[in-house]
Amino acid sequence: FNELKQFKEAIHYQNKAIALKKTLKGDYRSSIDNSINNLGLSYKDSGQYDLAIKAFSEILKNKNLINEIPDFYALVLDNYTHTLYLSKNIKNVPKLYHKALKICDSINASYKSIIIHQHLA
Questions:
Q1: What's the rounded Cα separation, in Å, for the pair 114 and 120?
Q2: What angle do CA 107, 104, 110 make, to 5 degrees?
């Protein structure tokens, strides 16, 4: 739905997926975070920047994520920063992009760094 620009439906189904994953027994934190990231992207693409920032911030609050899954942390940080830029909240944008790039460089995540370089440009 997101790729079809049917954002209302995309947001609805992302929220359903998140709610369902939260009911499962076991550790599904990374899967839930992945769905929250996708929800944030749907909000961003639909121009609901405040809600997107809130979704990405929820993931970034996990201080262990940068050590546990650094490539995902860099991806979410890039999505968060790009949303800040789109919402015209640019005060920390370059610094945050550079932080994401530094993480990518430290783990040789060159594909993710390409996207971050594009956003930084």
A1: 10
A2: 90
